[in-house]
Amino acid sequence: MEILKKKIFTPVKSLYQFGMSIVDRVAENIGISKYFARFLVSGAINTAFGYSVFAFFIFIGCGDFTAPFFAEIASIIFNFNTIGGMVFGDRSKKLFWRFCLVYGTIYIFQVVGLKLFAACGVENRYLSGFILIFPGALLSYNLNKKLVFKK
After folding, report:
1. Cα–chain-centroid distance for residue 30?
2. pTM beyond 0.90, yes or no
3. Are residues 53 and 117 in the same domain?
4. Is the pLDDT of residue 39 over 80?
C-alpha cells in the first residue's frame, strides 16, 4: 500500500495542489473569489459526470422524475467530494446532510424546470436538462456557500 501511495497518490496530490494554485492566482488576477473559481473548475467535472448520468437514464427510458432523481443521487456522492474538498476545503461528514438538502433543492428545481419546458412545447429533455445546468449551477454554488460550507 505504501508503494501505491508513493507512486500514484503523491503525484496526483501534487498535480492537484499545483492546479489549484493556478486557479487561485487566476481568480485573484481577475478579481473573483477563489471559491467561485474553484467551483467553476469542479463544476465542469461535476457537470460532465452528472449530465452523463442524467442522459444515460433518459436514454434507457426513465421519465422526468426518475432520470433527475438517479442523476442527483450519483451527483450527491460524487460532488460532495469535489465541491467539499476542491472548492471549500472541507469534506467533513457532518456537512453531508446539509449538502443533501441543497441537492434536494436542486432536484426540485430540475424537475420543475423540465416540466416548465415541456409545458412551453420544448419536448427535447436532453436540451432542457442541458439548459437547466447553468442556473442550477449558480443556485448550487450560492446554497452550498451559504448553507453548507459557510465561506
Report:
1. 23
2. no
3. yes
4. yes
